[in-house]
Amino acid sequence: MLDAALFELQHVADVLWPRYEELAAAGRVPPGGRADPHEQQLLRALFQRLPIPVVLLDRESVVRRMNFAATQLFNTRAGYATGRPLTSSLRRDGQAALRSQVAAVARGEGGRSLTVHLSQPGPDGALRVTLAALRPPGEPQPAVLAAFQPDRGTAATSSVTLPVPRTAGKDTVDGPAAQPDLAEVTRHAELLDLVDDMATALLGATLAGGGPEEVLGRAAELLHGRFADWVIADVATDGAGAPRRMVALGPPEAAGERTASLAGQDPADCPLVVEALDDGVAALRVSPPDANAFGRDATGAPVLVREEVVSLLCIPLRVSPTAPVLGALTLFRTAGRSAFEMAEAGAADRISRHIALALSRPRARVAGAAED
Questions:
Q1: Predicted confidence (pLDDT) per residue in 243-256, tens digit
Q2: In 10 A of CB 33, how many CB atoms?
Q3: Does residue 170 carry a pLDDT above 60?
Q4: 212: which residues sit within 8 A by CB, 6+ positions away?
């Protein structure tokens, strides 16, 4: 349902909004302001076709508008990014600096520039962002225009290829029909293979009569490395008992004390796990803003900071939205790896239901044997 909603919103942004602008320019729709609608349409077109990534921000660094080149740089859709803080797409060490500089520009302290890094490493490396204040017509609050370019001190200048807008208008560029994205098709096939392999592994564990340890162990081994750098599984206990950590698998360099620290952590000290177990709340986080969302280790250091987590998924294990939660599956991706995407989160949700089915079958068999 979420993918369908995003598809419809993209249709609105690509087709309906340009058509609305055409009607407004033709005088059929009230422009809603004193500015010349032709000028507004021209300015929007110029903004979208700028050859460098440009983002319009408010004084809190929240995205108000993003051009085509910026959507490619940040690997997102303009409609999805609007209303979200731009700092969530940056590495943690540069988030505070960008927020403070944007606020200073919005206060009228003059334009400035600084170097930032994306949370998902890209070919451009470090980026130089230039900030300038704008006063949109008819709005009381100033806005900040942020232009991004590769930092010449750390990366060579690279060109940005803009997609041809598929809009109905007089200045539409005729071109070949859009071709399927090979990378997207390949990734979709990989996710289907992952779900299929998971179903096979869980069926094997179930037919062998394995308990929760066997089921969660096989699932974690399949996801570990292939889908996530860290795989952590917790199970809920019946009654008033505390939840238990069953599995904690990390990268090879974390073998030993770091893995043992997470394996021995109390799930009740992890807010994300508690929400998943008690309320059935799933979480997808990119550059997690709350460093304590997964608790602290024995030394008092936040786990997410220690492991340099760039993205995480925490999903309740249950057969259906109305069924009881049997456990929680948490996945980390660390520095140097791309963040979880919506399609990957959807695949993980399906996998969580399969795991819940496998966990519920051994319990049903034990209960049936006790009755006999």
A1: 899 999 999 888 88
A2: 10
A3: no
A4: 235, 246, 327, 359, 362
Cα angle: 295, vertex 313, 258; to 5 degrees: 45
For residue 74, give the amino acid letter.
F
Instruction: Judge whether residue 52 has pLDDT over 80.
Output: yes
What integer best gives the mean pLDDT of the chain? 80
Q: Is 9 helix (H, G, I), strand (E, B) or coil?
A: helix
Those residues with Cβ within 8 angstroms of residue 129's Cβ, 6 or more apart along the chain or in another chain: 98, 113, 114, 115, 116, 146, 147, 148
DSSP single-letter state for residue 135? -
* Nearest CA among 144, 145, 112, 115 for reference residue 127: 115
**Residue, of 106 and 331, whose pLDDT is higher:** 331
Residues 6+ apart with CB under 8 A from 318: 280, 324, 325, 326, 352, 353, 356
Q: Cα–Cα distance between 21 and 37 in angstroms, integer?
A: 8
Place of tokens 């490493």: 121
What are the strands of the beta sheet with 230-235, ordered from one edge? Answer: 244-249, 230-235, 327-334, 309-317, 283-286
Q: Which has the closest alpha carbon to 47: 143, 118, 116? A: 143
| 313-341: pLDDT as tens digits | 999 999 988 899 999 999 999 988 888 98
> What are φ and ψ of residue 51, in 5° steps?
-75, 0
